[in-house]
Amino acid sequence: MLVSLSFRLTISVLLACAMVVLSTNICMAEAQGRILGQGLPNTVGLAQDHRGLLYTANKVTGDVFCLPPESDPVLLARVPGVPTSVAVDRLRNVFVGTEAGSVFVVSLDGSVREVYHCCGAPVGLDIDRDGGLLIAMEDGVIVRVDRKDFVER
Fold first, then answer.
1. Which of 20-34, 79-93, 135-149 is predicted with the least confidence, judged by mean pLDDT?
2. Does a structural domain hold residue 104?
3. Looking at per-residue confidence, does 39 or 153 come out higher?
4. What pLDDT shows up at residue 111?
5. What's the half-sphere exposure (Cβ side, CA atoms, 13 Å) at 138?
6. Which whole number is the average pLDDT over 61-65?
7. 104 pairs with which residues across the strands?
8. Is 136 exposed, middle or buried (0-12, 13-18, 19+ CB in 10 A)?
């Protein structure tokens, strides 16, 4: 009986040690990645332009940020509503979808304007090779908006 209890305790300790080693190895593997930005709570959406700059939005404040390499985040603008998705085109215009169904464009000068309105929240945005806007809706519908249709708005 004593041997059995001792054996079970030894096995329990060995298993606990193995769990610590495994979790440490996982943390070490994650730590090998390079941090590209930090201090950005409530981040939603992530897009990269042709220069390698990253863009994201804060879902609480509506702030839209550019994340230059090895520099602090740069506030580009604030969009009205709750951001849900982000995309950037080759001209570095940042598109931000919101819960209310609006898609805003943030220009390089920081100006913000609505370029499209959906019937539902866009959960994903992308730009196609012609500069058109691709919108994934929360209900599973994918919409394509030609560039000429949102530039003229």
1. 20-34
2. yes
3. 39
4. 97
5. 12
6. 97
7. 96, 114
8. middle
Same domain for 98 and 116, yes or no, is yes
| Residues shown for the chain | 153
Residues 58, 116, single domain; the answer is yes
SS3 147: helix
Q: Dump the DSSP string for 5-72.
A: HHHHHHHHHHHHHHHHHHHHHHHHHHHTSPP---S-TTEEEEEE-TTS-EEEEETTT-EEEEE-TTS-
- Both 74 and 18 in a single domain? no
Percent of the chain, pLDDT > 70?
A: 78
Summarize pLDDT for 4-52 with one digit per residue, the tens: 545 454 444 444 444 444 444 444 445 577 777 777 889 999 999 999 9
> For the chain, how far is it from start to end, CA to CA, in angstroms?
82
CATH of the domain at 141: 2.120.10.30
Q: What backbone torsions phi and psi does residue 51 show, to the nearest 5 degrees?
A: -90, -10
Same-domain status, 79 and 138: yes
Q: Tell me the C-alpha distance between 29 and 118, whole Å.
A: 41
pTM of the complete model: 0.76
Domains in the chain: how many in total? Answer: 2
Are the C-beta atoms of 132 and 145 separated by less than 8 Å? Answer: yes
Do the domain assignments include residue 38?
Answer: no
